[in-house]
Amino acid sequence: MAEKLNLRQLKVPVTNLLKKVFSRERFTANLDIAVGEHGVSEKSDRGDLKLEVWLESSPDGIRVKGDIQGSVSLQCTRCLEEYRQDLDIAVDEFYRRAGLSTLGGDGRRLADGEIQEEDEYVIAEGAIDLNLLLNDAVMLSLPIKHLCTEECKGLCQWCGKNLNEGECGCVREVIDPRLEVLKTLLESGEE
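Request: output the structure for the sequence above.
Response:
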């Protein structure tokens, strides 16, 4: 099982950027990631997905704006085969400075130490962690059902053969489940 995405290269130091308000830096990373039941995970060192963003400082934090382009590895929910899904995602998020008060869900200002919004990105220890941003952006852009093709036939429910590779030869007697009781009565010889 692949672990949750936690790449060191996506933990970007921003201490110098925070010292110069309204300054910008460019950040790029080439990644090879897969999507599983627990979200995005790393497959290898270099890959087909490119994260290219601008980091823009402001008095309240860092704005991250750019694109995620390329492809990720998925597993088809019907045939269980691995396939590649193309992505082109626009990113525009804000990382808030730790310790600053912010607006809560009800619009009022939160006091220092009060719990912040769950989906809020925060600058921690002089760095921004793009792992969570990448995971969120990729997972939200994917369809709920991962299909290698719209015409995917899936697996045979009796023998498990991939039906995209050909028929399996299983004899399939389809009976309406509501009439299953009548079939058992006929087989037992009762009238």
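The radius of gyration is 25 Å.
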